[in-house]
């Protein structure tokens, strides 16, 4: 048996075993800019009771893996911090946000569901619920491409801004809302990164 024959047999064998196949596309599928100039993810908490809120977001995550965290002057850890995450870690984070519904969040639909749940709660307990100090969770995501499922259309140049008041409280009050609890889980994940022990103060 010649060397060429052996090589041909080996190539056929590899193909049969699937070892030379391209990796299957994972969903949600997305692409993002890997530059250091535009953040892929931004995270912020806006408190209504603060007279002069800091306009800079609490956290920005860039496509090259740089994570910039800004604690306003009124916070104990006031200052700017940074760390770097890997490309794999960033992809996992984006996929977590997508799987928790942030990118496909339909605010009007979820608000209607929340209002219905609140009405049911009020009719059962015969009492009103009021938040004295609103805080808004804001998550922004920028992607070059996004496709939720193989059966859904691919979307180019995605910019999604998620904003919801009193997210943590609503997640506790309305566990029946998958969208609200999912968004709260996404915010918790970003909080974990914001409070990472690997952060280094840069100013």
Q: How many E-type strands?
A: 8
User: C-alpha Rg, in Å?
Assistant: 22 Å
> For the residues shown, what is the average pLDDT?
86
- In DSSP terms (H or I, runs of 4 or more residues), the helix count works out at 5
For this entry, what is the oligomeric state of its chains?
single chain
Write the layout of secondary structure elements.
Elements: H1 3-17, E1 29-31, E2 39-47, E3 59-62, E4 66-71, E5 79-84, H2 87-99, H3 107-125, E6 135-147, E7 155-165, H4 167-173, H5 178-194, E8 200-201
Antiparallel strand pairs: 1-6, 2-3, 2-6, 3-4, 4-5, 5-8, 6-7
Fold and architecture overview:
With 203 residues, this protein is α+β, with helices and mostly antiparallel strands. The protein contains five helices and eight strands, in the order αβββββααββααβ. A hairpin with a 7-residue loop joins β4 and β5 (79-84). It has one domain. It starts with a helix and ends with a strand. Strands 1, 2, 3, 4, 5, 6, 7 and 8 form an eight-stranded antiparallel sheet that branches.
